[in-house]
Write a structure and sequence with these properties.
88 residues; mainly alpha; 89% helix; 0% strand; flat
Length: 88
């Protein structure tokens, strides 16, 4: 990442509350912990998307697909953490 790209990121973080909050949480807890927590959330969100009457078919598909991808990544990180704990 170039210095200009880094500057642009931090400028965007100042203007975007979600990006700012995620950046702060990642600094505090670490990216693996954030992804594992999002994996837990994705299970519930995926179930909710099935029953949500206000979502179009395309929106429901996008939410379920995103949840599936996050859940898969979370499972992989959990497995890696378990392996590291077992072999330490």
């Amino acid at each position: 990442m170039t210095p200009e790209e880094r500057h642009n990121f931090w400028k965007a973080a100042e203007e975007n509350p979600l990006l700012s909050a995620l950046s702060s949480l990642t600094e505090r807890w670490g990216l693996p912990a954030i992804v594992m927590a999002l994996g837990d959330i994705s299970v519930v969100l995926s179930e909710d998307a099935h029953d949500a009457a206000n979502l179009s078919t395309e929106q429901r598909s996008m939410v379920i697909s995103a949840c599936s991808q996050v859940s898969d990544l979370s499972d992989r990180i959990h497995a890696e953490m378990d392996y590291l704990t077992a072999t330490k």
